[in-house]
C-alpha cells in the first residue's frame, strides 16, 4: 500500500497552473493541480480515458463537453467521458486531483517527486 497526504506541499505558480504527478504507472495517473485565482487550463480532452476530478479546495468554473459553465468547489466529484472537451478557470486558489486510466510506457513515480507541466499542454 502507498500513502500520499493530499493536503500538504501545495505549490502555486504565478506563471500559470501547476500540475504535480502524485503517482503514475502503466494502469493510470493521479495528478494534483493547483491554480491561483484567474488562472485557466484551456479546453482539451483525454482521448482514451475518462477524467475524474475531485476538488480538494477553492472554487472554479469547470466547462464540459456540453459547453455549460459550472461553479464547483470542495468535496465535489466531476466525471468527464473519454474524449470530452473540458476547461477550468480558478475563482479562488483552486486545488484538485485528476485521475486518468492508463499511461502506456509510463515509469512508476514516487509520490510528489516528479514535477511537470506536461499534463497542462
Short description:
The protein has strands at residues 18-25, 28-35, 40-44, 51-57, 59-63, 69-73, 76-80, 86-90, 94-101. The protein has 121 residues and is mainly beta.
Q: Can you put this structure into words, describing what you see?
A:
It is a single chain. With 121 residues, the protein is mainly beta. It has one domain (18-120): Jelly Rolls (Sandwich). It is built from no helices and 9 strands. It has strands at 18-25, 28-35, 40-44, 51-57, 59-63, 69-73, 76-80, 86-90, 94-101. A 5-stranded antiparallel sheet has the order 1-2-9-4-7, with no helix packed on it. The chain is globular. 23% of the residues are buried. The model is unreliable at 112-119 (pLDDT under 50).
Strand content: over 45%
Low-confidence stretches: 112-119
Largest sheet: 5 strands, antiparallel
Query: What would the principal axes of the Cα set say about the shape?
Result: globular
Key features of this structure:
single chain; 121 residues; mainly beta; Jelly Rolls; five-stranded antiparallel β-sheet; four-stranded antiparallel β-sheet; 0% helix; 46% strand; disordered C terminus
Task: List the SSEs and their pairings.
Elements: E1 18-25, E2 28-35, E3 40-44, E4 51-57, E5 59-63, E6 69-73, E7 76-80, E8 86-90, E9 94-101
Antiparallel strand pairs: 1-2, 2-9, 3-8, 4-7, 4-9, 5-6, 5-8
